[in-house]
Amino acid sequence: MAACISDVGYPVTHQLWVEIMAESSRNEALQQAFIESDAVMRQSLASIIKDGIAAGEFRQDLDINATTILLFALIDGLIARKAINSHFSFSRDLPMFSSYIAALLHK
Question: Is the model's pLDDT at 10 over the cut of 70?
Answer without folding.
Answer: no
